[in-house]
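Dear colleague,

As promised, here are the two records you asked about, laid out in our usual form so they can be pasted straight into your sheet.

NAME FIELD: protein one
SEQUENCE, THEN STRUCTURE:
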Amino acid sequence: MNKKQLRHILDTIAEMFPDAHCELNHSNPFELTIAVLLSAQCTDETVNKVTATLFQKYRTPEDYIVVPVSELEEDIRRIGLFRNKAKNIQSLCRILLENYHGQIPEAHEELVKLPGVGRKTANVVVSNAFGVPAIAVDTHVERVSKRLGIAKETDSVLEVEKHLMAGVPRDEWTLTHHRLIFFGRYHCKAQNPACGICPLLDVCKEGKKRMKTGGNRKSKESSTGSSTVLT
């Protein structure tokens, strides 16, 4: 993809979602880290429902480690992989107290050392909590980037991130991350993308293919009972 095409994409999604932002509710870097950890294979909506009470009960790393892990598991039971996540949260909190004075480290290389914190989580935390430009590639960002031709279908998550970092101006990384998520979550959905009204259909091979298939199906349906069936 050339720079002009990418600029067209960035400007279009900026117009569609000018107020795109992190939808995980949090009030500090520690809460954001816990929320992002919980969000793996789970919707932000469900995470926010759980953290609404979780963050009232647990306010500091100390709060998470003074309870049995079974109690924490029960508190986050609605979250997918809740047992493993409860263990990671307690391990993370112990490390924060032992090595970081109970504070979330600002450095990306330190964040990824924490249990349950991978590259995507670290990117979300540094960009949203500490203002460091970063692009976190979640399922929405990956899907949209590949559909729009920013990345190849066979690219890994890391390769998608590298394509975006190479093509998007650094000062737009964080906003682009949020806008791509909103675009994928509310417009270019996995199962039912809004191809028919998409302003980026001109650069989307996937969308053109879907529209062609949909058009053929409608033609067949409208021709039922006729001696001629369009294909």
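NAME FIELD: protein two
SEQUENCE, THEN STRUCTURE:
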Amino acid sequence: MTYPIKAVIFDIDGVLLDSLSIWKKLGRRFIVKHGYTPVPDMDEILFSMSMEQGAAWLKDTFSLENSEEEIIQELETRIQTFYFEEVKAKPGAEALLQRINKLGIPVVAATSSPREHVRKALERNHLLPYLKEIYTTSEIGESKYSPKIYLTAAKSLNSSPNGTLVVEDSLYALITARDAGFQTAGIFDPFGEPDQEQLKKKADIYCRSLNELLNYME
């Protein structure tokens, strides 16, 4: 890494939580339930969107009579049980956060998921106490195609982009952070980024697991 790390911003789904399996097929399951045929690449299209953006895309693409609010409500109901009761931490997450905490480096999370869901899952998996704050794209008002969520998080930690490490499993989000001047770590997840070679190429460091990232936190 080019500069000393003064702060860390973690993505949540696929990085701290082993939760990508539900998100990857959420839109497809919704559409099939309502009697429609999924369109090509819809899993990938929806995966990078916030809940609000995804609901708007589903309504427009399939000419749904449901309001965007009704679509969001049904999607959230489907994932609530998963986050509240089932999702587990990624292997090595707590050990990594403990190490960073002992180094005195502040940590926040930046996510496209609903705050209530990820907060409950993080709390249940004993990870929440390590995070100073959780930032969501819904509350920020822009997806991770915009660097706003990372810049907001870094500012809250009194850290500059070049002194802040952003940990992501998605290529598009990692590129957004990199282009905004952040140092980046790309993390593999079996349900995540399909182009691991590009993730490896674009990231400052690339790890197959959080246990591997732990080795960089000295």
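A couple of things worth noting about protein two: The chain has two domains: 7-19+88-214, 21-86. The chain has a mean pLDDT of 93.

Best,
R.
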